[in-house]
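Re: that backbone. Tokens:
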């Protein structure tokens, strides 16, 4: 525990920008690690792997939305003397609406689909796949940025450890997520090198949106409970709209279900033990 306390103290000393840069740099590196599996997995249409990876990612994101975002949003609102569920529910609805709007406005295509979504355009499938992953990773970067910004506002070591737990959880689920991005690209005819690069870079929006979120929070700190719930709504939209359906589109649906439960359990333990 003394080592953990020392690490949290070091994290606090970095300041919110450097802490978020370090945390989202870690999550980005985990995406790259997952994408590197494209060099070792031969079957690019492995349905078992798809169910396993996407289900696990979904479980982690569900638990993170609850313990790292919604519950802290309610607690922060009540600490201000407000009714806790109002900003939690309101921010949640706004987050869902925001992702639904982006889903309609940005042309994109999911890896398991041959049908483009969003506005009609002349972009190729690869570009549309990259847009889909970018859309997917925005809420994750925002979530890490918000939790570290909230920790900086309170100055509480426990808040920093909770933010670190969220970053670790998202980093863990980014490993299978990176694999799930790179393998379909290779299956579309990309070389292993190009599939790895595109798969790895799909996570670059997390540091970008994490740092941008930290930058704006000081100006909107009274609305922090709304922002935390907003990120939760956005993350759960991705889970329900994309990850869970994709994890159950093949004969290994039981694998996807167990993977969701495993991811949820791991993130719950991680968040409650560190946060």
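Recovered sequence:
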């Amino acid at each position: 525990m003394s080592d953990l306390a020392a690490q949290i103290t070091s994290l606090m000393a970095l300041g919110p920008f450097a802490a978020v840069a370090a945390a989202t740099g870690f999550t980005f590196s985990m995406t790259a690690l997952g994408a590197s599996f494209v060099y070792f997995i031969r079957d690019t249409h492995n349905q078992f792997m798809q169910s396993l990876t996407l289900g696990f990612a979904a479980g982690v994101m569900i638990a993170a939305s609850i313990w790292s975002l919604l519950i802290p949003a309610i607690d922060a609102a009540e600490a201000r003397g407000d009714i806790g569920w109002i900003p939690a529910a309101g921010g949640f609805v706004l987050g869902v609406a925001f992702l639904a709007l982006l889903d309609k406005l940005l042309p994109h295509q999911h890896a398991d689909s041959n049908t483009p979504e969003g506005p009609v355009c002349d972009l190729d499938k690869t570009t549309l796949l990259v847009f889909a992953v970018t859309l997917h990773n925005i809420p994750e970067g925002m979530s890490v940025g918000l939790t570290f910004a909230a920790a900086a506002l309170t100055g509480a070591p426990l808040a920093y450890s909770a933010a670190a737990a969220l970053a670790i959880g998202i980093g863990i689920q980014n490993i299978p997520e990176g694999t799930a991005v790179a393998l379909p690209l290779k299956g579309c005819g990309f070389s292993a090198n190009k599939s790895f690069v595109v798969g790895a870079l799909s996570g670059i929006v997390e540091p970008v949106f994490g740092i941008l979120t930290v930058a704006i929070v000081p100006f909107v700190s009274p609305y922090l409970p709304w922002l935390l719930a907003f990120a939760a709504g956005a993350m759960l939209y991705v889970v329900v709209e994309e990850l869970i359906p994709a994890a159950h589109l093949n004969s290994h649906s039981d694998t996807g279900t167990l993977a969701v439960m495993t991811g949820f359990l791991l993130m719950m333990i991680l968040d409650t033990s560190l946060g």
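Residues 195 and 243 are 20 Å apart (CA to CA). The chain is about 80% helix and 0% strand.
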